[in-house]
Amino acid sequence: FYCGGVYFLLRWFQDGHGPSLYCSALFTALGIMEKTPVLFVGLLVLAVFWWKLGKGCLKAKGFYGYGLLSLGLPLLYYTYASQVATISFVDGIATKHIFSTKILGLFTREGLAFFWRELPLFFGWGVLLAGAVGFALALYKRAHFLSVWALAFALEWATIVVVIQFGYYLIFMAPPLAALCALLFQSLFAQRRALGLACAALVVALTAYTGLPRWHQLTQVNQDIQAVGALIQATTQKGDVLAVAWADPVYLNAATRHGYRV
After folding, report:
1. Distance between CA atoms of residues 192 and 182, nearest Å
2. Cβ-Cβ contacts under 8 Å for 238 (sequence gap 6 or more)
3. pLDDT tens digits for 94-127?
C-alpha cells in the first residue's frame, strides 16, 4: 500500500491525472492503517504538491481531498478500534520514548551502534553503499522526488527507529533505497553497459552472500518453541484463553491458543 501510494503520487506528479492522486491517497491511508510510520511519506506528498502547484496548492481541492482521505480513514479506523478493543495492545511508545529526550538518540553512542549493527543485517553493505552513491547522484541530477522520499524515511530512522530500536522498522527505507540503487545502475549502464551490469551483479552477489545465511537462519523451525507449544496444547483445552510471561507471541502461536502476552 505504501509503495502504491508513492507510485500513484509520482503518476499524478508527471501527468496530472486526477484519479492517480486519489488512488495515491487511498493506498497511503491503507498503508498508515497497517503501520503508522508510513505517515512520514506525507513529507514527500507536501513536497510534490508544492512543486506542482506552488502556493496555489493551499487553494486546490485535491490538496485537502488528499489529506481528508489519507488521514481521515486511518483516524476513523483507529477511533473505531480503540472503542471495540478488549485490551490496549500499545504501550505508549510515542509518549514514553519518542516525544522525550530519547529523540536525540541519533547523537548517542548507543544509537549509532544500533545502526552500525542493524543496517548491514537488514540490507547488506552492497545495497547500502550503492544506495548512498545513488542518493548523491539523485542530488546531482536534481531527482528531487527520489531525494525527498529517501530523506523522509531517514527522518523516520532518526526520530522513531533510533528511539525504539526495533530493527524491522527500518523496512520503510527499502523502496527508496532500491530506487536509488536502480538510479546508479541506470546511470552507469547509460555510460557503459558492461560497467552498469557489472556493478548491479556485484551488489546482487554481495546481497546474496550476506542475505542467504540470514534467510536460512530465520526460516528454521525452533524446536524449543515447538516443544513448549506442544506442552501447552497437551495441558489446555482449545477454547482456553491463556497468558504467557513473554513479550513474543510465538508460544501462543505454536500452541494455537488465544491469549495475552504479559
Report:
1. 15
2. 256, 257
3. 555 555 556 666 778 888 899 999 999 899 999 9
Instruction: Give the three-class secondary structure for 242.
Output: strand
Q: Express each pLDDT in 210-220 by its tens digit.
A: 888 888 888 88
- CA separation for the pair 189, 203 (Å, rounded): 14
Cell numbers at 80, concatenated: 473505531
The Cα 6–Cα 148 span in angstroms is 12
What is the residue whose three cell numbers read 533510533? Answer: 162
Mutual angle of helices 18-34 and 61-84, in 10-degree steps: 20
Alpha-carbon gap, residue 88 to 78, rounded angstroms: 12
Cα within 13 Å of Cα(46), Cβ side: 6
- Of all helices (H) and strands (E), which one includes residue 258? strand 258-261
Q: What is the pTM of this model?
A: 0.83
Indicate the SS3 state at residue 139. helix
